[in-house]
Amino acid sequence: MSDADAALWWARARAEGPLRMPSATRTPAGMLRLVERGGEHCWLLPRPPDDVTPAVLRELGMQALAVEFPNETRRVLAAALRCCWPDAQTSPWPGQLATVREVLDVFDQLAPGRGEEAVHRLGTAALRRLHASRWLDVDNEARRVGLGPRVATWPDQDLPALRELRGELPSPRPGPERNR
Amino acid sequence: MGDEPLGLDAVAAEQTIVSVFEQIVAVLARRADAAIADPVLFRLADTLFAAFARAGEDGLTAEQIRSACAAFPAEMIDNRLGILRELRAIQPVFDKPYQREYRASFTSYVSMLFVQRMLARGGQSELHQLLTMEKIRLEDGQSTVEDAREVAVRVTTALRLLVAELVALTVGGTVEALRERAPLLWNAKPLIDQASAVHEILLDRWPELGRWCGELRSAIAAYEDASTNASARLMAVAGTSRALNLLPPEMWTRFARRATLDELAAVLADQIFDAPAPWHDTADLTQAVAGAPRPASGRSTPPRSQIPDSDEKPAHERSDAEAERLAVVAEEVLGDGDAIAVEQLLSDTDWVTARRVLADLVAASNNARLSYRLVWSGTVEVRPGSVPSWLTHGVFERARRPA
Question: Which residue in the set A66, A113, A165 is minimally distant from B289, CB to CB?
Fold first, then answer.
C-alpha cells in the first residue's frame, strides 16, 4: 500500500470515524486493525504515535469535545465494560455480547434508588451516544450490547486501572430474560 | 410509480401539478372536462414519453406502449392513446394505412417540460425569458411597427394580470395563499428592469407608439407597487425569521422528507468534517463511577414533642434511674422511722453537703412516683454563726400512697 493510499485511509478515518471494512482489507500504515468477533469484518482506526490519546488535550489546556451528561454516559460505559469483558486478564476488545437489560441493571446498581423509568431513559440515551461514537456497539433489535472499537484505543498503561474499575463494579443481578 | 404510498404531502403536490396544468391548458381547452383531472394521468403521460424516447426512431406499437405502461390500468392507457392520437401528440411513424408504429410529438413533450417548469417557478421566469427575447428581437432592428405594438400590448397584458393577482392576494387573500404565490415576488426588481428596458427601446425607436408605451409604463409602475406591498405584508407576518417564512413551512418539511440523500448532501459537498467523538478517559470513568449519587442511608426519626400524648403513660419512665436513686437517699435519711425533722438532717454539716441533701429531699418530694413529702411549718429560725444560718422548720415524711 502506497503512502498516498495510506493518506487517503487516514483522511477517510478522520472524516468518518472508525472504518468497518471486510477483513481482506490491508491495514494502512499507522492504523490499528481490530478484527470483529465473527472475523468477517475488521475495524480500522488511526493509531497515534506513543499511545497518545485525546486525554492529552486536557494537559495542553485545549477544549476537548464535550459529552452530554458525561457522568451518566461514563457510568453506562463502565457498566457495559463490566458485562462485556469476561476475562479481566485479557484486553477488553473484542469482549462478549451482553443484553441491554444486564448493562442497565449494573448502571442501576451504580446509582440506586432512581426509579425504573429514569434509569431506562438515562441509560438508553447514554447507550445511543456511546453507539454513535463507537464506544459501544448497540443492537437495538436484538437488545444486545457489545464493546465498540474505540475501547481498544485505551492505552496499555490504563488497563490496570480499568481492571480495578471492572472489579469494583457489581455484577448484573439475575432477572427475567425477556429477550432471549 | 403507481404503488408509491400516498401521503398528504404527495396528494397535495399532485393536486398542485394538476391545477397548474389545468390553468395552462384552460386557454386551449374546448370543454371544461377535457383537461385531465387526475395526477395518475399526468404520470402516465410522463411514462409514455419516456418509453417513446427509449424506443428511438422505430417508434412503438400499441402493444409495446401497453407493456411500457404496465403499471397503469389497461383501459386508462387505451383511453389516453385515443386522445393523444386524436390531438396528434402521438402520430404514426409513416402516414400510410395499417401503420402500427407510433412516434411521439416532440412539441407535446416539451410542453410537459414547460408545465413542470411553470410548476417550479410559477410562470414568472417565463415572463423573464419572454422579455429577454422580445428585447433581442426589437434590438436587431428588423421588427416592424406592428411587431413592436404587439410586444407592448402583450407585455402590458401579462404585467396587468400579474398585478391583479398580487393585489387580490395582498388586499383580500389569506397570508397562506400569498405565501404559496410568493414565487411571483422573487426577482421582481430584474423583471421591472427588463420591462423598462423593453419600454425604452420601444419608445426610442417608435415614438408613434407613445400611447401603448404609456400603458406599459403604468403597468410596470403598478407591478412595482404591488410587489412591494405584497412583500411588505409577508415580511410583517413573518417577523424576525422573514427569509424562511417566505416559503410555507410545509415546503421545507416536504423537501427535507422527500429529498434524496444526495440532494441533502449536496449542500455540504465541498465541506469536509471531522468525525470527532468524545473521549472517555479511564480516570474520568473511575471518577464517574466513584461519584455516583448514593441515596442517604436510612431516615432519621423526626423530633418528638416533649409533651406526652394524652393516651400515653407519662414519660417519667425515662427518669426511673433518678427515682430509684432518690428512693435510696430517702430511705437512708428516714431509716426505720416514718418522719424526720429537716433541721436534724441539716445541722452539724457544712452547707455544701447540706444543700445537696436538701435538693434530693425536694426532688423526692416532688417526684410523683415516690411517696415522700416535705412539710414546712411557718416559722423561720435565724441562727447566726451556725449552718444553715437561717432555717425553716419542716418534716420529711412518708406519704400515704393514694389508695
Answer: A165
Beta bridge partners of B103: B91
Kindly write down the DSSP assignment for every residue of B243-274, as one continuous string. Answer: HHHTS-HHHHHHHHHHS-HHHHHHTTTT----
Domain CATH for A158: 1.10.10
Contact A133 B273 (CB under 8 A): no
- When divided into structural domains, chain A yields a total of 2
Cβ contacts of B265 on chain A, cutoff 8 Å = none
Predicted ipTM of the assembly = 0.83
Identify the domain containing residue A37 by its residue range.
3-47
CB contact under 8 A, A158 and B272: no
Report the Cα–Cα distance between both ends of chain B, in Å, rounded.
108
Amino acid B336 reads D
Per-residue pLDDT tens over the stretch B2-28:
444 556 666 666 666 666 666 666 655
Residue A82 sits in the same domain as residue A134 = yes
Tell me the count of A-B CB pairs closer than 8 A. Answer: 76
Of B273, B291, B294, the CB nearest to A71: B291
How many residues would you count in chain B? 403
Structure confidence at residue B93 (pLDDT): 72
What pTM was estimated for this model as a whole? 0.40
Q: Kindly state the helix (H) or strand (E) to which residue B381 belongs, with its residue range.
A: strand B372-382
